Amino acid sequence: MIKGHPQLTRNGELKHLLTVEGLPRQVVTHILDTAAQFVTPAEGGDGELGKVPLLRGKSVFNLFFENSTRTRTTFEIAAQRLSADVQNLNINASSTSKGESLLDTINNLSAMHADMFVVRHAESGAPYLIAQHCPPHVHVINAGDGRHAHPTQGLLDMYTIRHFKKDFTNLTVAIVGDILHSRVARSDIHALTTLGVPEVRAIGPRTLLPTGLEHLGVRVFHDMDEGLKGVDVVIMLRLQNERMSGALLPSAGEYFKYYGLTPARLARAKPDAIVMHPGPMNRGVEIDSAVADGPQSVILNQVTFGIAVRMAVMSIVAGHNH
Amino acid sequence: MIKGHPQLTRNGELKHLLTVEGLPRQVVTHILDTAAQFVTPAEGGDGELGKVPLLRGKSVFNLFFENSTRTRTTFEIAAQRLSADVQNLNINASSTSKGESLLDTINNLSAMHADMFVVRHAESGAPYLIAQHCPPHVHVINAGDGRHAHPTQGLLDMYTIRHFKKDFTNLTVAIVGDILHSRVARSDIHALTTLGVPEVRAIGPRTLLPTGLEHLGVRVFHDMDEGLKGVDVVIMLRLQNERMSGALLPSAGEYFKYYGLTPARLARAKPDAIVMHPGPMNRGVEIDSAVADGPQSVILNQVTFGIAVRMAVMSIVAGHNH
Amino acid sequence: MIKGHPQLTRNGELKHLLTVEGLPRQVVTHILDTAAQFVTPAEGGDGELGKVPLLRGKSVFNLFFENSTRTRTTFEIAAQRLSADVQNLNINASSTSKGESLLDTINNLSAMHADMFVVRHAESGAPYLIAQHCPPHVHVINAGDGRHAHPTQGLLDMYTIRHFKKDFTNLTVAIVGDILHSRVARSDIHALTTLGVPEVRAIGPRTLLPTGLEHLGVRVFHDMDEGLKGVDVVIMLRLQNERMSGALLPSAGEYFKYYGLTPARLARAKPDAIVMHPGPMNRGVEIDSAVADGPQSVILNQVTFGIAVRMAVMSIVAGHNH
What we know:
The structure is a homotrimer.
Chain A: H1 25-36, E1 59-64, H2 69-81, E2 85-90, H3 102-111, E3 116-121, H4 126-133, E4 139-145, H5 151-165, E5 172-176, H6 183-194, E6 199-203, E7 218-221, H7 224-228, E8 233-236, H8 241-245, H9 252-259, H10 263-266, E9 274-276, H11 289-292, H12 299-318
Parallel strand pairs in A: 1-2, 1-3, 3-4, 5-6, 5-8, 6-7, 8-9
Helix pairs in contact in A: 1-5, 1-12, 2-12, 5-6, 5-12
């Protein structure tokens, strides 16, 4: 489904944001640099609080085929701060229930002068299909597709790491938990590799790690104490409750015993290691509250930076019309 | 329920838009001319893209007693482009479930300084009731009431026909399908007659055509090949799935066999005939994809013109306060 | 849960609005005076219609943990008129269903640069918890918590009484109905007492009046004719349908017989007495339509003033950042 660089123009500029995979390092860096302009000094950036007119008169459509109030809200806020008009469409409750096809829906919304689609879909690849299909002036941002990618989450994670660690090229980063089902982990791994992180580790039980991680340059650990040893960054993943009811895991308590991030476990990492989580957290399942609310947690910074990164992506793609 | 011209002021200006029936030709033409100012040159109009301040500070309430994300979205976009503030109220989920009457709801919203109600209701006549009841500064736009009327759809269809055919007075227009249950068909027939179209045809099975069409000046056909012969415009109607389960029709496949618009059937019309559909389409039921996506289809133009026509109606009624 | 004045700054200025209880008279009066600037001359105020830029660039989050389209709409309109950006979050349908705690949700939204939370919650005290927890620049407005308080309703009722009666210090005010379950009644009683109303009466059946009303300085009546005698203001309460199915009341018809406000009963009050109701009304249960729509009813004025009072509260709290 992915041919060449479907998200880049011939000049190498970002037209859509579909995945972090294959995104050139200078494009990633340009997004992070742009985002810094939307972070206020109080938050460690150079930007001013308030609205900017970059997307005034533009129509941004949040097309959420899968419900996610939290992610939709971050995109809606980002668009509002750019002065865009926002339409929230919960697609399950509308046309497709009348039997209209995905592409007919996209055709119709494009004909209403949509300028940007923010797409969340349970099926991997849906944002690609939409990007290939829609008219040239429309931009598509993937807000999570199946198990495949969640590129703005990956980019905001990179912003957060750069903010606290400055340089990527001397870091060890551990990703812990249900990597098998996680589009966040997939986007993080591609971004970390692109930015030159020398050691990326995956920590989790065999049932929750995909095969082939080594081919992506990732070191695999099943023992958490061993995996956390000396790391600079710990990215915890959310354990979906539905995994617990299946055969993959015995129980939440059992999981926490082996893979929950406690202060004692975190002590295995470097003393200045930071702890990240894409949210929403399952306290007491994958993370202890003492860590989640502790001095090494940068989880709420991630949320703040996430608005800025989404503003950056929206303003960059909207600037490249062909 | 309809006395005199409930939607016109004493000076003959449009105060509400409730139905196309009885609307003077010069009012219809004024709406279409105004809409042209909101269509961009790229789309064949004279307007500029972007927001205009005509409804700045005004509050538009979308009162959808019947769910229709598509229609609600078009009105919301139109209102946003006019710089209005928009409130979307799904009324089923709110006050009326607490036993509040329709008119109490209207009273309350009017007391909140509503300037305009866009009303969709499953019962014919509900927008009239609201227009008669609300205070003088409030305007009502019918976004579809029962089987009765869908005037903005009728008007955008007229805009589309005028755009492609220029002159109404030498046209033959065929409306095909479930005319019995269609408020779109009813609004189209009134508009076409008002604008001087000499021949309007209705094509469909006996079970889906209302009696008395002849009294409206409409020629009735049950054979599609015969009905399409030499027409300039084909307006296809959506076949509601619920009709199939009743006794009215044997099956979707059977329907398509007799009344589906295929390239072969379309060849019976004039070579430059245009094909319209109010959407959402049932591909393979009332229309073949080769036609829907073919060179004679103007279905997506209808969507684009629909935004402009709704902007025109909103700005015209808001300009006449008495 | 309430220590000191959790809603006031050290300088005695309003930072949050959580309850009317304990709010100093000058703060209440300042809110009412400010609201008058948002009421137009046609409605009896000094303000201009339209938008004001007081909250431009601010993000207001409507956090409705309990559904109330009507109340949410009034806050959304108030925020729009102040030029704020508004986010509507129906929290049941989102994060908390993924097991995220209330405080994690608040942390996340605060990290997205929320400036104000308008909170509706089925549990008494939830807005306090949020106010204690959120960062210093964030303001909380209670839009109704359990049976505890509904302060903006209390304040708009005071605005309405002041508008029609000018002076509080010579009034007799009767509150009629289900006071036991009513946060409106609780807020009204505190506000009336604070503003110096010499006689507040509670009228209702024993099963719907809480104990201890006398300690709040309220005179209790079980006979409506007696209780209404000579009053200046009648505040009717909504009778929740769910009360009828329990053991508290025999039937709606029976309730109306003893406590429904009819023209005959209203004649017991002063000739210029006004009739109020927080809405939505149960016509024929607690109030007769002849009264609801009669010359003494100021129920729709309450709605209009409610927008102005909510604008006043929002602009006042947003002006005091510490």
